[in-house]
Amino acid sequence: MTDPNGKKGPSPGVADWIRSACRFATDRNDFRRNLLVNLGLFAAGVWVARNLSDFDLMSPQPVT
To answer: Which one, of 40, 18, 21, lies nearest residue 30 by Cα?
Structure first.
């Protein structure tokens, strides 16, 4: 995209999104950021627990 001065660069929407994402990631007192990070870590832990376990709960169990 070209601005009125003839320079090429990201559109204002993309630049604003990047700026707000950087501000969001670096704000240490932001409750939403902490909540999203904690939910992401929880989801990663659940994924690891479900996919990297040594046994499959859905597989048929041996008859004893």
So the answer is: 21
**Structure confidence at residue 9 as a pLDDT band (50, 70, 90):** low
Token pair recorded at residue 15? 């630049």
Of 52, 29, 25, 56, residue with least CA distance to 40: 25
Q: Crossing angle, helix 31-51 and helix 12-26, to 10 degrees?
A: 80
HEC letters along the chain? CECCCCCECCCHHHHHHHHHHHHHHHCCCCHHHHHHHHHHHHHHHHHHHHHCCCCCCCCCCCCC
Pairwise CA distance, residues 12 & 43, whole Å: 33
Provide the whole-model pTM: 0.41
